[in-house]
Amino acid sequence: MRRMLPREGVNAVRVVVGLLVRGDYEELETLTEGRRFSAAEMADAIAGRGLDLIDPPEDAYDAVDAVEVTGTGPAAGGRRAFGVTFPLWTAQEGRSALALRLTLSEVMDGVWTVELDAIGAA
Known about the structure:
The structure is a single chain. By secondary structure, the protein is α+β, with helices and mostly antiparallel strands. The protein has three helices and five strands, in the order αααβββββ. α1 packs antiparallel against α2 and α2 crosses α3. The chain is globular and about 40 Å long.
């Protein structure tokens, strides 16, 4: 079910995108607890495309594509979780065909964990 992503969830997306744009893969690995991607795998996923990531326009965060997920992972027990697809921007293309796929889970009121599920074609 499509839902409006809470402000804290949008902020988590913003943090992940900012770390990718800056190439701070080790910090992003720490944030995501390295669940699916190591820092080296993130770097390879970006560098292998030959594109330079840039910050998206601020209004890109106004319409984050989020689908509510229920009954799995840290969100079990009545907590919310969302699957998020967010397009990346590059110096070469502007809005790119590349996108992030994330799972955001609310572990306490207003506190979210982030899992990086994929970096690839939208």
